[in-house]
Amino acid sequence: MNDHTPALLIILPLLFAFMVSGMAWIKKSLCYPLAVAGSGLCAFFSIRVFTHVLRHGTMQYSLGGWEAPWGIGYHVDLLNGVVLVAVSVLAFINMIATRKAAAIQFPEKEGAFYALYLLFIVGLVGIVATGDLFNLYVLLEVASLTSYALIALGEGRAPLSSLNYLYMGTIGGCFYLLGVGYLYIMTGSLNMADVASLLRPLYESGAIWVAFTFCMVGIGVKMAFFPLHVWLPNAYTYAPSAVSSLIAPLMTKVMVYVMIRLMISVFCVDFAFSVLDLGSAMVWLSILAIVMGAALALAQKNLKRLFCYIIVSEIGYMVGGAWLGNAAGMTGAILHILNDALMTICLFLAAGTIHYRINNLDLDHLQGLFGRMPVTMACLVAAGLSIIGVPPTCGFFSKWYLITGALQAGQYGFMAALLFSSLVNVILFFRVFEIGYYGDPGHGHMHGSSPETRTEAPAAMLAPLLILSAGLVVMGVFTGSIVAAVIDPIIPAGLAR
Amino acid sequence: MSELIPLIVAKYNYWLYIILMMIGLYAMIAKNNLVKKLVGMNIFQTSIILFYVSIGCKKGGTIPIIHHGIHAGRHVVDPAHYVNPLPHVLMLTAIVVSVSTLGVALALAVKIYNRYKTLEEDEILARLRAK
């Protein structure tokens, strides 16, 4: 009895991507329904896989019936099960929410856009589901290549920023590939579980150390960890709004997942924390990431660019949490992957909705926006409060776990950095709210509408945004049960509780 | 110095890939022309392909096809006689990845050229600043 759902997760959006790009030649109006069907089926199957994992434990799938160490296997446990659900469901919601914006921004290229969109989902879902190191590289490049193309669809500087992202991303991917090469030399295997069992006697070897460093630096580039973040702000700012609300929340979070997966299932925590003793060095690097991300965000004059630097800072939260070396920190990091994906998609969707109406996201163009787009701004406030970490939104709870972990590990610098970035976030968001609430709309460069006119975005864009903002609170309220049911069982036993 | 030379000779494939990789990295960092950077990127990727292919090789090893001749099924297969095919197969995929990366990058370069009428990075940045 072989349950094929893990394979369907990846194959269905892939097939639909081909169908969409073919349909672009025949009947353009069918592209969007096909794309929705593809991404909806992917979301449906990922929820099914996740509920199966919740009930019956880890799911193994061998492609083509080749058993694990020889063939490529998909390995879904609670950690990637929950990330799978987050990725596929958020991508699905974003597709519905940005339909109108996409139709306006690239009317001629809708077929290509949705085909790339689906391929991007294939890449991300594959990265998360796979249990094979080389397969992960290939799917990583699938996701990256499609994101370069999607970002280049934007106006102005988008192609240039996309090319810069491509240079950096390729170096990152190649470093990861080199790391996998060293692992293969030492163990002769590419299957994650197999490599983990073969690595134990080799921990003292220098080659493993090199492999680990190459993998981490490669992934660090892809997730925009602070000194390697330079590609991110331009790429995500100039991307079309439908694209940035897809890529910004998902790509970096999936890369954090890959880092955690390598730490706990390939190299194992004993190696990362006892043999290498890198914990405090990585925590200090993430302190730098948090502080610099927050400081650079203060200097931004564009809403989307501001959010980009917030992402850089949030990546520091997750990397630091994972490297604190105790259960609370790891719980915080994993929980923050989910929460941050939800918060960032809210932010970028709200920014996209504002862009849809006023076509400019510079901060001094946002005057009087609370009067004109109350619902959108309410969602932006919810997401902002969650980023700041106000209970009962979900951002508070993951930050709580991270701070608890920092206290247990004695990393007071990390705790201080978390508090500092929360305070900076307060300044950032309240400045936006102040401009939006008290700013005089007549003073700005509006296109002639009086301040009283409500030009709220269409309901089709608002409904998904409202659902996601409600999700922020729901995730926060159910944090306890999510942690107990999903995250506690995957915390490796080697971590201090 | 006398210990270093045998070390270099014995593991010359690693040294070769590192030299190629550094050439590629240098071109990506130091060159001003976007297409020259792309060439550097491709050298960088190729060096890793070389690395993988070289680790599968064995002295005196042959292609890994077991003859279905007179001894079919009777003689013992000794893996030392055959080159390890797996890294080579992996690199077929990596070549596909690097070709498609190059394709996307060249398409972007064309788009940039159409917009700014130049591929020199400093000229593009100067033009952006002037706006």
Subunit organisation of the chains:
heterodimer
Strand content of chain A: under 5%
Chain pair with largest interface: A-B, 24 and 28 residues
CATH fold name of chain B: Helix Hairpins
Task: Indicate the percent of residues in helices of chain B.
Answer: 55-70%
Assign the structural class of chain B, choosing from mainly alpha, mainly beta, alpha/beta, alpha+beta, or little secondary structure: mainly alpha
Low-confidence runs of chain A (pLDDT<50, min 5 residues)? none
Order of helices and strands of chain A, N to C? Answer: HHEEHHHHHHHHHHHHHHHHHHH
The CATH C-level class name of chain B: Mainly Alpha
Radius of gyration of chain B: 22 Å
Give the strand content of chain B.
under 5%
> Terminal Cα separation of chain A, in Å?
38 Å
Major beta sheet summary of chain A: 2 strands, antiparallel
Number of strands of chain A: 2
Question: How would you describe the shape of chain B?
Answer: elongated
Q: So how many helices of chain A? A: 21
Key words describing this protein structure:
heterodimer; A: 497 residues; mainly alpha; two-stranded antiparallel ribbon; 21 helices; 2 strands; B: 131 residues; Helix Hairpins; 5 helices; elongated
